[in-house]
Specification:
The protein is mostly helical and about 200 residues long. Helices cover about 55% and strands about 5% of the residues. The chain has a three-stranded antiparallel β-sheet with strand order 2-1-3.
Length: about 200
């Protein structure tokens, strides 16, 4: 079992390190970010708990100038009320988007689970290793999917905004999270295979 548990523990430890990097992304570490937005001469990096030039917070709002609200004009030439807005250029700070920024806390949570999985693997504790590796993998999967959804929405709205020179692109935090997800998937497989081999060996002898 140890022959498979130790590589699994190393992969879990690597995933934990990657997720820690993501957890201390912009504004704490501006070189790690989920999305980069450029508006004029300003370059803004968005991270887990804020963005360039802000403090850290649980959930945050995006700069409204990146995708200002625009009012559609009917073919009749009559401008509708301000409640009728283009979906692609509406404010970034809707309730859905703001609530999705709060789910970014799953990255440090996944880092913690991956760390416990690594410790359990190095200690050759089969049950704990399986439990925390599974938990870390599932949490990282949900975190990555939600971050892709969040910053996919933001990226789309910034790029489609009219009357601005804003641009945006995905950052390295997305791919670091994906790397951690792959590492945890391999760690999970190794831990399960090691536990299965140990169970068969114990019953054979």
């Amino acid at each position: 079992m140890a022959n498979f548990m130790l590589p699994g523990a190393l992969l879990a430890a690597a995933a934990a390190i990657l997720l820690i990097f993501v957890s201390v992304s912009s504004p704490t570490w501006n070189n790690i970010f989920f999305l980069q937005a450029v508006s004029g001469s300003d370059v803004i990096h968005f991270g887990c708990f804020g963005f360039t030039g802000t403090g850290t917070s649980f959930g945050y709002f995006f700069p409204s100038n990146l995708a200002p609200e625009s009012v559609l004009v009917h073919s009749s030439g009559i401008t509708p009320s301000s409640t009728t807005l283009s979906n692609s250029t509406s404010s970034l700070n809707t309730d859905v988007v703001h609530n999705l920024t709060k789910t970014l806390f799953l990255h440090p949570l996944a880092a913690g689970f991956a760390g416990f999985a690594a410790i359990a693997g190095f200690a050759i504790h089969r049950v704990a290793a399986i439990f925390f590796t599974t938990l870390a993998f599932l949490t990282t999967l949900v975190a990555w999917v939600l971050s892709m959804v969040l910053f996919g929405i933001v990226r789309h709205r910034i790029r489609d905004a009219e009357g601005t020179d804003s641009a945006s692109q995905y950052g390295n935090a997305e791919w670091l999270t994906l790397g951690a997800l792959v590492a945890l998937l391999l760690a999970w497989w190794l831990v399960l295979f090691g536990a299965f081999c140990s169970h068969r060996h114990r019953h054979r002898y």
